[in-house]
Design goal:
The chain is α/β, with parallel strands linked by helices. It has a single domain, classed as 3-Layer(aba) Sandwich (Rossmann fold), CATH 3.40.50.1820. The protein has twelve helices and nine strands. α2 links the parallel β4 and β5. α7 runs antiparallel to α8. It is globular.
Length: 422
């Protein structure tokens, strides 16, 4: 097990230099309340139905998070400028419908330069399958003007690694009407990380796991890859469910976790709302009311009994966080991280942003406990990075997700080096 603290910016590089194209804008106090791991957009979303209207001040600090994610074509879209660590001549992309009935719209990034092929000339390319967080994400995991999964795919593709990423199968067709042009779509605000959950998905299996396993099966069918070097990279909820993927995917060589939670997700949610409410240093009466309501809902989750997961309860939300069903919360409880990873000895790379308020250092410590026995695990902390693994300064706030940026080059370099090592 290796434990490494990393600077916010890397000083070394593989291929193109780690030079940011844009200077990161200064991050001020929260102006727009933001996303949480399971889908509430702000503390205002949890207000009791009989609460009075928000004041103008509270609207300014608890306004809606970005919404209306739109899938984008694989080529460079309007409003997106690739970071300097990307070499567009080094890879190509194709769209492919995968899974039963072509339900998943996947984008495959394939290196095009033979000079980047692994040293063993008889081997194929390593491949990484990207698993997104919760919500109706497009293949780029778009968040406002930011596209962390495109950054990752293009950064890895520039360095000799095939990447498969996908738009979630349960994204509503109305999210992307045929009349929309790429320019129309890219100009609209997009989902903050975890800004929405699929209300029709009863458990995390339907929310995340089914798509991930469909993508893994498709990865085996991509020509030119090395089937012994298939990796899975999950972000946010996608990282949180990696232990469940690992349990059922013996063919995967190793796993990369970016900003995954290990605490119970109801506790993660409550922590996020407390953080947002206290950004201005105090709690208003309305914020206290919101927190009391959520605390009561969290207690109900803790009190659920396994018998509550029967078919007669599957569609009942009752007074539980985010209106999710008993089955949803009980399914999460039935798969504790440490139990799932107890016998795991494959390579793991666990990365965490030091400014991440959505998934905190408590979760990072949880991964260390769960994987402490595994000598093939590497932990790395990036003090200056947020939940999107983008650099900033001061306390992280939801408003910074609206600022155009890129996954930090140090993350790209570290992931590439780790994959080449394995």
């Amino acid at each position: 097990m290796r434990d490494v603290a990393a600077p916010g910016r890397a000083t070394r590089s593989t291929g193109r230099a780690c030079r940011p194209r844009f200077a990161q804008a200064a991050i001020g106090l929260c102006q727009v309340a933001g996303a949480c791991l399971l889908g509430c957009q702000s503390a205002a979303d949890l207000r009791p139905a009989d609460a009075p209207p928000l004041s103008s001040h509270e609207q300014a600090t608890s306004g809606p998070a970005p919404s209306g994610a739109r899938a984008l074509p694989p080529d460079e879209a309007a409003g997106y400028r690739p970071p300097d660590y990307v070499d567009r001549a080094a890879f190509s992309e194709e769209l492919r419908a995968i899974g039963p009935g072509g339900a998943l719209r996947a984008t495959i990034t394939r290196p095009s330069r033979s000079t980047e092929r692994p040293k063993d000339s008889g081997a194929g390319w390593p491949i990484v399958v990207l698993v997104p967080g919760s919500g109706a994400h497009d293949a780029d995991e778009s968040v406002g003007p930011n596209k962390p999964f495109r950054d990752l795919a293009w950064g890895l593709g520039s360095r000799g690694i095939v990447v498969l990423r996908y738009a979630k199968a349960r994204r509503s067709e109305v999210d992307e009407p045929a009349s929309r042009t790429p320019d129309d779509r890219s100009a609209e605000p997009t989902l903050a990380p975890e800004a929405a959950i699929d209300e029709q998905a009863p458990t995390v299996k339907e929310e995340a796991l089914d798509d991930a396993f469909t993508a893994l099966r498709a990865a085996h069918e991509i020509a030119g890859i090395d089937p012994s070097r298939i990796f899975v990279l999950g972000h946010s909820l996608g990282a949180t469910v990696i232990p469940r993927i690992a349990k059922s995917a013996a063919e995967v060589r190793g796993f990369v976790l970016l900003g995954g939670a290990t605490r119970p997700l109801e506790d993660v949610l409550l922590g996020q709302i407390r953080y947002l409410a206290l950004l201005d240093g105090s709690l208003s009466d309305r914020e206290k009311l919101v927190l009391r309501k959520l605390e009561a809902e969290v207690r109900r989750v803790k009190e659920l009994a396994p018998a509550d997961s029967g078919p007669e309860h599957a569609a009942e939300s009752g007074e539980l966080p985010l209106g999710r069903s008993r089955a949803f919360w009980l399914d999460l409880r039935a798969h504790p991280t440490e139990d799932l990873l107890r016998d795991e000895n494959r390579p793991f790379l666990v990365l965490h942003g030091g400014r991440d308020y959505q998934v905190t250092l408590d979760d990072f410590a949880g991964w260390k406990r769960a994987l402490g026995h595994n000598a093939q695990t590497t932990f790395k902390l990036y003090p200056a990075l947020n939940h999107l693994f983008m650099a900033g300064a001061g306390p992280s706030t939801p408003s910074e997700y609206r600022i155009a940026g890129h996954v930090d080059c140090s993350v790209i370099v570290d992931v590439v080096a780790w994959i080449r090592e394995h």
